[in-house]
Amino acid sequence: MAGVTIRDLRKAYGATEVMHGVDLDIKDGEFVVFVGPSGCGKSTLLRMIAGLEDITSGTVSIGDDVVNEVAPSKRGVAMVFQTYALYPHMTVFQNLAFGLKQAKTPQDEINRRVNAAADVLQITDYLERSPRNLSGGQRQRVAIGRAIVRDPEVFLFDEPLSNLDAALRVQTRLEIARLHERLQSTMIYVTHDQVEAMTLADKIVVLRAGKVEQVGSPIELYERPANSFVAQFIGSPKMNFFDGNDVINRTVDDAQFVGLRPEHMVVSDAANAIVSGKLELVENLGEYVLVHLVSPHGVEFIVKLETAPAVPKGEMIYFAPEKVERLHMFDRVSGLRLV
Amino acid sequence: MTDKQISDIKNRIAVIAAWIVACLFFFPIFWMVLTSFKTELQAISVPPKLFFKPTLENFALIQERTDYTKFAWNSIVTSVGGTGLALIIAIPAAYAMAFNSGRWTKDILMWMLSTKMLPAVGVLMPIYLLSQKFGLLDTKGVLVIIYALINLPIIMLILFNYFREIPKEILEASRMDGTSTFNEITQIVMPLAWGGIASTALLSIVLCWNEAFWSINLTASDAGTLPALVASFSSPEGLFWAKLSAVSTLACAPIVVFGWLCQKQLVQGLTFGAVK
Q: Domain B65-270's class?
């Protein structure tokens, strides 16, 4: 097993640079999630670690070795693709055994490892079927199995759940978490879904436009986002921002703005409030309600409450932060969090 | 009239039109086969006879005067050999172009295809002289090489289009699994594009079989193919329609039967895998 170290990693297509010098340390056995909006470079970064994408400059090291020029199969990594990428003309068994065959592993060793992996993933009954005859969830297990049999130092997952339906996604997410617990291998996981990121990760790497915005544990990112981008990307519904015009009972510098998560706002009276808004719409989700409001200066925001406020539409409601620590201040120009 | 009735009528007209066109195309072949069973006198009678007492004398005469089976065997060897050689070159080339395509890939393909637009007679002299120098005139070998070369552009283009339909991730997965380029082609790409390769091969065999220009010019009695046999019946003795029809029928029959058996694959090849 091994960690991954990335130093000043850059990627350019012709004159266009898409990764702008990424530095990252991934410890042995850590579960790291790359998250960010589409086009942020998270998949490119993963593919550079896998060796499927050339490195323009900088280094990728797995364990103690720089692997920039090492073939994908010799890096000790295994990848699970979004589209599963199973070999459609082979049976499940052959799919799992293919990599071992290429490495000229003895047949009884192949049998042993394939059966062990199939056991872990509960796909033993399907070994003789072809991928065509499997459901999406079963195919995904085979794809994970293909990674497991190679006994890699680092597992790479490229949006592995995005082709599954919602129920299966939750189940497979749990299975991946269990797998990590069991194997204790380093895992790098790419997703645009912040729920997956929050639930799976030991460490989240938030990327935007080819740059790392913040690296930290899920709770750090949630409680102390480094900037307004991370603040809005992590958490759902996303964090509300207000500038000085909308903040009442408190002065906010023109160069700053306030961030407050929907779940950290409580109804209050005008004297203790920090913001107010006209009630626009209430979405009742049973367990909680999402209240959509518009501030006097036209900023739309959402508040998450246990029960719907007993006021008619168009009525002004006042809100205070649940705790004062829940109030985030950001710099207007740089977007950076102000301590 | 309702819209449904109008569209029904339109459909019917289209079907009738298609039948008329099909019959127009088929008529010469039908007439050729018919004439091959006539005597020479019946063949040139005016008005042409549709009903007559069929005779096999033309076929008997052909087998007597020439060795049909030898020409047919030459046709088989050169078509299959030429196609095989072309595939051996085209598969790795199309693989390289489909999966490592660069800025000029399309232009290179177009350039290769453009060689098909040149008249073959333009290179007759050099190829004839080269064949002569290498002692290849009237050998099956020279036809195998020429057939492979003239069909290479079209085979490349079709295979390129088939290969491009293979999801890139599957090849990436195989690279993660440590596959060599050779294994990637033989164990991943070829099995996945098998239908495409087979239909391309069928198409190429048909094209080779029907090729006459190079066969007539580079071969004679030893390595001549069926088109050369047909040609030999047309010139020296004036026009003997019945015999000419009989030999043409014999030349066409195998490939028509073959094409009919492989119809489905051939259509797939011709549509370049566009409909999927």
A: mainly alpha
